[in-house]
Amino acid sequence: AVVSTQSTGKTLLAELAKIKKERAVDQQKKEVEKAAEDERIRKETILSGNPLLNNPAGNASSSAGDFSVKRRWDDDVVFKNCAKGVDENDKTDRFINDTIRSEFHKKFLSKYIK
Question: H or E element: which one contains 20?
Fold first, then answer.
């Protein structure tokens, strides 16, 4: 009876080692799959973040898409490009909401103050 108990114990230990080995292999396989999935998600995020590579049509042979430049928030501010001589090349009559930079003021100063 003692011999059969020892052989049964050895069989149980062998079975336990086999189960632990299988679990370790499964765990390692899950980790590899998770790492591959994380890498795939990371690459998709990177590619979708680049508008030149992000093609809405789905293939590269179609049109390039709408890559128009958006207007900046400060395109129409009053004191943009206030450096002396910036507007001298552009002599079109247009309304400027700044009394110091308006065409009338410039003409007035050039006429009466020299």
Answer: helix 2-49
